[in-house]
Automatic annotation (TrEMBL):
It is an enzyme of class 3 (hydrolase). Its cofactor is Mg(2+); Zn(2+). Residues 156-281 form the Nudix hydrolase domain. Pfam families: NUDIX. Its EC number is 3.6.1.22. It catalyses: a 5'-end NAD(+)-phospho-ribonucleoside in mRNA + H2O = a 5'-end phospho-adenosine-phospho-ribonucleoside in mRNA + beta-nicotinamide D-ribonucleotide + 2 H(+). It comes from Rhodococcus rhodnii LMG 5362. GO terms for cellular component: cytosol. The keyword Cell membrane does not apply. PROSITE patterns: NUDIX, NUDIX_BOX. This is NAD(+) diphosphatase. CDD domains: NUDIX_NADH_pyrophosphatase_Nudt13. One of its GO terms (molecular function) is metal ion binding. Keywords: Hydrolase, Magnesium, Manganese, Metal-binding, NAD.
């Protein structure tokens, strides 16, 4: 039967990137100092906002000091210029954030802001060593922190989470709503990977815990960084049985149901969670890999 296996039809918005990270320069202080004068600076405030033009492009600043700013992170190179990101408690001008403009940014801008929001958020939370509690200082151009007491080096954390589109191998998909979400807002299922657990095992466990469904034919689809604050969403599809009773066992799901492909197509045409449409089903916005998954599944046709 067709429709069992499908792939993502487009690259998720926050997975796009055209900036070379130039890791070899992170410890080359002479090269970084030489490139600083012509560098592009991306400032991000503590809420994840940054300056953007009316056309939706990043509005960079230029260096006002002779050497790289303390706390700035070297993000890589772009059109032959060094690019840095730094935290600014308050910004003025036209501001945007990834949630509102992530899908509209260019590949270069999307990759740069996603990385900047993630690594700067890590610095905010890593000021003290997880090993001995001592203060840490940025090193390696912002890509690590070192304990002032022990010299122990820590690197930016990324927490893996699985996100899975469960379908019946034919024309229905299982969607759910968390207790904190308003009525009619549904999405695919997701959860964090536990220590010592494979991604596939996490898919099976999370779905069983959240809705009581046993899945099989677990297949990888793609991934997307999700810097809110430091996750990567690893996408799968899996097959479940709609006749199996739904049971909400861990309190993370308030409501779940099987929807037909036509119902999902109509919901995708109605907009997203931000839509004011009086639709019976509202789905995630374009910045989320969940939407790409649903669009890709909905575009498939099921053979007789």
């Amino acid at each position: 039967m067709g429709g069992v296996h499908f792939g993502l039809e487009r690259i998720p918005s926050l997975s796009r990137s055209g900036v070379g990270r130039a890791e070899e320069l992170r410890s080359d202080h002479d090269a970084l100092r030489a490139g600083w004068a012509g560098a592009l600076l991306l400032y991000v405030d503590r809420t994840g906002r940054f300056r953007a033009t009316a056309e939706g492009a990043l509005d960079f600043a230029e260096p006002s000091s002779a050497e790289p700013e303390p706390g700035a992170v070297f993000m890589g190179t772009r059109d032959g210029r060094h690019v840095w990101a730094a935290r600014r408690p308050a910004l003025s001008g036209d501001l945007a954030d990834l949630m509102s403009v992530g899908a509209a940014l260019s590949d270069d801008d999307a990759g740069l802001v996603t990385g900047a929001v993630a690594v700067l958020g890590w610095h905010d939370r890593a000021r003290y060593s997880a090993l001995d509690g001592s203060e840490t200082e940025p090193s390696l151009s912002g890509w690590s922190r070192i304990s002032a007491t022990s010299g122990h080096e820590e690197f930016p954390r990324t927490d893996p989470a699985v996100i899975c589109l469960v379908h019946d191998g034919a024309d229905r998909v299982l969607l759910a709503r968390q207790p904190t979400w308003p009525q009619r807002r549904f999405s695919v299922l997701a959860g964090f990977v536990e220590a010592g657990e494979s991604l596939e095992a996490c898919v099976a466990r999370e779905i069983a815990e959240e809705v009581g469904v046993t899945v099989h034919d677990i297949r990888y689809l793609g991934s997307q960084p999700w810097p809110f604050p430091r996750s990567v969403m690893i996408a799968f599809a899996a097959v479940g049985d709609p006749s199996q009773p739904l049971r909400f066992q861990d309190g993370e799901i308030a409501e779940a149901a099987w929807f037909t492909r036509d119902e999902v197509r109509r919901a995708l045409g109605s907009g997203d969670w931000a839509s004011s449409a009086d639709a019976p089903l509202l789905l995630p916005g374009s910045i989320s890999i969940a939407r790409v998954m649903l669009e890709s599944w909905a575009s498939e046709s099921v053979a007789d």
